[in-house]
Design a protein that fits this description.
Keywords: Autocatalytic cleavage, Cytoplasm, Decarboxylase, Lyase, Pantothenate biosynthesis, Pyruvate, Schiff base, Zymogen
Strand order of the largest sheet: 2-6-3-5-4-7-1-8
Protein name: Aspartate 1-decarboxylase
Radius of gyration: 14 Å
Number of helices: 2
Largest sheet: 8 strands, mixed
Number of strands: 8
Active site: 25, 58
Strand content: over 45%
Shape: globular
Order of helices and strands: EEEHEEEEHE
CATH topology: Barwin-like endoglucanases
CATH architecture: Beta Barrel
Number of domains: 1
Structural class: mainly beta
Pfam families: Asp_decarbox
Pathway: Cofactor biosynthesis; (R)-pantothenate biosynthesis; beta-alanine from L-aspartate: step 1/1
């Protein structure tokens, strides 16, 4: 049997911008991607803490150290700059792997810099 478990998350990131006229995805600071172990074009779930919206998209790298968290395309209608979000990546694992797995949790400050 395969299970879907949380692999990593960035908790409390601040949306810095939205771009309706982009083909889609989430632009994310490369430093945050590395800290969370999220790969370019990996599917993620984004949960907006301000309005409760949950969406799935994929990640594209943004400039390292920029703090960018930008919802693009249709997702741009689901947040406004300043909203707090949780960005989560999941993995399919076996039952045996599930018993040993612990998610990587990245906490950020108001400028989306890693604090823990």
């Amino acid at each position: 049997m395969q299970l879907v478990l949380l692999r990593s998350k960035i908790h409390g990131a601040t949306v810095t911008e939205t771009n309706l006229n982009y083909q889609g995805s989430l632009t994310l600071d490369e430093a945050l991607m590395r800290a969370a172990g999220i790969f370019p074009y990996e599917q993620v779930q984004v949960v907006n803490l301000n309005n409760g919206v949950r969406l799935e998209t994929y990640v594209i790298p943004g400039p390292e150290g920029s703090g960018v968290v930008c919802l693009n395309g249709a997702a741009a209608r689901l947040a406004v700059p300043g909203d707090k979000v949780i960005i989560m990546a999941y993995a399919w694992v076996t039952e045996e792997e599930a018993g040993k797995m612990k998610p990587r949790v990245v906490l950020v400050d108001e400028r989306n810099r890693v604090v823990a």
